[in-house]
Fold these 4 entries.
Entry 1:
Amino acid sequence: MIGTLSLLRLSFRLATWARPRIEAWSLERNWNRVEGERQLKSRNYADAEKHLSLAVLEAEEHGNPVPKRIHLRLQLAEAQRRHAMADPENPDKVRLAQAEKTVRSAIELAAKVNHTMAYVQCLDALADIFGDQNNYSAVEKVTQEAIRIETSLPHPDPLRTARRVHRLGVARHHTGQAAMAVSDVEKAVAIHEQTYGEDHVETARLLTDLGCIHRAQGNHVEAQKILRRALRIHENSCGYDSPETIRDLHNLAGSLEDSGDVDGAAEQYERALTLKARTIGGSLEEMGEMQYGLAGLYIGWQNYSRARELLIEAIGTFKRKRGTRLATALEMLGYVEEWSGRYPDAVKELASAGKVWESCGPEHTRDLLQNMEHRVSLLEQLRRKSEAKYLRERVEELRPTIPEPAPSEPELLDPDVGKSEAGDSALVDELKIAELKIAELKINERKIAELKRDDAKVADAEETAPLKTI
């Protein structure tokens, strides 16, 4: 009896001594995996990619179970994809291709051991990568396969199915399959309503996408109805100044504008601007961009007084960093003054814009020349001949210094390019649309000014020409 107790005490002491050493050995053995997961959660995708790459190699060397090796590959692919999309406007195509290769290696492992759930998870990861590559036909194909496998399981998960159906609808929207896109997203919304509830924020997220799809297809009555419902849920759940609420306001305003309800659109845009101003810790640059974009819309609606107010506020923000954005905002204010009949004020604002263009370097000489040529036309209309002559001489001096544009390399034709253009209008930022409108207005005004200048030259020539004797 005493011997048994002594043996038990010895075993307990041995276990107490060995436990921290085993944990330390285990932690050291899996350090790259643990650190990679930590960095992935912290959104440090570059470090996560580095550690998870080593963890994948270590798992192969140690002969870890296949499900664990698949899971590590999917985590690595997610880190690579997120790292590649750090700048959504300029994604890293090479790193996206690496992420795709990583997922395909995980698919091979899942297929070898016939692991159905892992295989479906790999298809979901591959669909996300194809989406970032704008390869929506591939997204559609992969998602359909994932839905087919999920529905064949004894107990399919309704939420996973809803997410895939939603992704399928968005992909079909981008490939121009309008009716099927609406049907798919409506099915996803119905599943979310049954699972989460009609007023849940997850349901509202899908409602926003459904409203955008209806807007892109020109179904503005249905789009506005759905977007107002999403807006109400986001206001109650996320707050009146949340990004989700502001996004709904922008989409609703865009639909109202597209359908011809200018007053309703202006009301929603102004509300979005007010909510953005209330956001604590918000970016002043983002606020200035919103003011600049909204001013462009008011110019299109010929509400020059409100456009002037917004531009003055935006210019005050842009003065902190100067640069091209300040120059374009000053020019826009100059055009507003001109269209309002305040020609002297227009010349003043355009002159301020010209000084900013000069400070932007030789690559903006062409912008500076266009600015000066327009000022010449305004000065001539104001009968300020000496100032117009001086500016014209400066234009001729600067014209030879315009750098020649670099020859563009021929682009390879991509069979997938153009497939998503049919449905992109609902997802394009309203500020970019406003800038396109302003650019078009600028071009039209410059053409009109050139015609006026030509007419003035002809009139002057006729006045100074000697009269013919009869």
Note: The chain has 20 helices and no strands.
Entry 2:
Amino acid sequence: MPLQTQQDQHASSTVREDCPECGGDLAVMRVIGGRNAEYWTMRCVSCGGIHLNVVEHVTSRTLH
């Protein structure tokens, strides 16, 4: 099993895992990198709704 980096652990704790409309599971469709954040497009596997999560990049300053 691959080791998670601190950034991966931070991202997984801030990304919504359930649909705000029906409570179903969300699947990642696309991750778009940006300067200060990543934009995760998620689709609900139950109702088909599309949701956007903005995940700020972790820096050494935010970890202390």
Note: Residues 1-10 have pLDDT under 50 and may be disordered.
Entry 3:
Amino acid sequence: MAYETSNPIKKIAEAGGNSVFFYTDGDAIATIAASGYFNSATENLKENDIILCVGSNASTQTVDICVVSSATGAATVTVVNGS
């Protein structure tokens, strides 16, 4: 499943030109960290922003940190799983 704007990322902090976001979904971190998952959020994300992700591994919730490695205009958003 892909990111949907009906379940948006939420900005929780901003400092030094970068932001920290919170995101929760039932997808596995491998899906969340896949290139293009956050394409619908390009207007909110920029390189080096951090996304705290709560996902799922079967029935177990997981927590991971992703760093936005690319987010330019309407192009593909790419994140790196920092866990």
Note: The chain has a mean pLDDT of 86.
Entry 4:
Amino acid sequence: MLSALAFAPAAAQIRIDARLDTSALRIGEQCRMHVEVDAPTGVNVDFPDYAAEGDLARGVEVLDAEADSNACEYNLTCFDEGDYQLNPYVLVGGDTMRASALTLRVNTVPVDTLHYEEFNEAGDVVNVPFRLSKWLVGALILFVLLLLAAYLLNMKIKKLPPARKQVEVPPTVPKTSKAMEAMENIRAIPRDSREERKQYYMRLTDVLRDFISERFGVNAGELTSSEIVQRLTQRRHTVALGELQEVLQAADLVKFAKYESSLTEADQSLLQAMNYLQSNRVQEAPAAPPVPHVVWVEDKAVVARRRRLSIGFAAACIAAAVVGLELLYELITIFI
């Protein structure tokens, strides 16, 4: 009695709703019955499977059921005409609780029993006009566009200049010859003003320093005039060293001591510098005149463009092949 009293408040909080997705169907058709339970947390809810015939309603079959914790859907069918009263129920906490009754109307299929021997003759073959679907038309246009893109890309690849080309490399000029040419260019520098003579001596000493660096392996560009003479003396490169020293000293006076050299002194320094170059030139055996040689040079821009166009051409060909095969398959399916 105490348990019954304890269950009474909980039962008052439980609500069972049942409904059909349709209240009328024809013989052999199916409908679904939805049962939902609103119960407090912790209350055990079990949905029956109505396995026994007539458990839900006599004549109504339960084909299957899909249930979760608080809801269940039953798939129903019936093969006899009539009105059926469904009495769904749920096991809540071990007790049976019923929902409101549902009415299901099952209608028969009308059959002409008077003229059951009459049959309609087979109809003629219907000639349906052939029409390409929008998909096939779009695929055909895409196929043509892909072929056109592949053709244009191939033409662009053919019109590209060669990625490698021959370049004529001039023969190497001896160090003394380059220095002498530079001296001839210095001869044309004007020496009228003090600033012009300063620039003249700076260019003159630059040529001498470059020649000494290449000819004797002395880093003359980072040394003072006295250090250059000292380094050459230590290495026993003393040919015309006195003339070199005089040129460097004259240049230092003009550049740093603001010495006003005359045109004669400037010309004398140039002759001494040229004499130093001639005296220290590399003695080589007479050989045939140097001839330019040809090397192959790769144009990286052309190579990169050719690679991009080739990738696009390959992609267009592959896409065209895929679309073409799909078109062929669809056409074969239509006509065969």
Note: The longest strand covers residues 30-38.
